[in-house]
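Extended Data, panel c. Modelled sequence:
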Amino acid sequence: MEQYTSDFDVCSAILNEELVCALGCTEPIALAYAAALARAALGEAPQSLEVACSGNVIKNVKSVTVPNSGGMRGIEAAVALGWTAGDETKNLEVLEGAGDAERAAAQALIDSGIFSVTLAEGVPNLFVEVVAHGDAHSSLVRIEDRHTHVTRLERDGQPLAVGGVSTDGVLEENLLRDDMRSRLSLELIWEFAHKAELNQFADAIEQQLELNGAIAQEGLGGTWGAHIGKTLLDTRPDDVSCRARAMAAAGSDARMSGCSMPVVICCGSGNQGITSSLPVREYAHDLGSSREELLRAVALSDLTSVHVKRFIGELSAFCGAVSAAAGAAGAICMLKGGSFEQYQAAVVNTLANVGGIVCDGAKPSCAAKIASAVDAGILGCDMALANADFLPGEGLVAESAERTIRSMGYVGRVGMHPTDVEILNIMIGKTDPENS
């Protein structure tokens, strides 16, 4: 990874790293990606497949449809399809080429009984490991912290490179990545969004708007999920705040139910990439903003989301739609002519309102949580523009926006960890709330 010196270069690099295409919910896709790498490393038919996942991965794979799977769900489905159809060179679009033959082969692999799935404990919140044994060889792939961050890739216990992936330089890459994000602040994000050269980020934002807008339209026109987006749009189609919520929800409706259209993610999540962009687009259209104003506002939204999410962690019990909605709130405030102080207030007002919505896994109701988070973001923006804000000392609202972000992040990362454990225990049947 390249070393950056300019703060604007750092912001641009973060956007170009974060805003990548993904096909389907990123947790089952991480499993499919690991499986495709393990298959390529093994080089023969598997006699056993051992899968270990963190609780957060199990939670997010349990109820979401694997894309291009014909409606299959679950860890074994994601791994099996990754094994039979995965293209390990395509990263988060690993399942793009899955067809009928590959789906049939994946089902046969599941039916063969060679899978074992275990909960990995004492590991990062995002953790996937696939160990494959064949007649002559074994392979191991481990992914940690980020959905394509391969920390071990081995054949017969020896490191190797597969599909352009190598574990050489992983530590240095992590340190540089963390250093880049630690340089973010609301002040820098505001400055970048207003003054950076458009060519530093325009292509990534244009693709985000195009692909995420397309899947939202599919969500509105199809029969995906619980039809949250369509339901919202049917109620008040002429209300921009309702349209903003509907478009974001519709993208999630389709994505959570297995739609094979790609999305551009942010913070490792398609839902967050959708939430940080489409509400901003709806307000830009309503306000008559220029294309440049829209691109700059979405860049601000994405970077704000990344900044807020950094203190929470990649996966947690804290619903990621909240951090993305806080970014969207700040961007809408910017489009409406708000000041830097009002941008900060819009972010804080959003976090103070819906910070703490629990994540109980990826599934159709994510669309409703997105709609609620965006609604809170719009209210937070309106409050900021009216100079009617939540004040320091009220709950977790601190004396500065940056400290408020860190406080919310601490609650999401540390305070809600026991909540995360109990959510998982209920979901997998380990805890029965009626008898506890």
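The chain has two domains: 26-170, 184-426. This feature is highlighted in the accompanying rendering.
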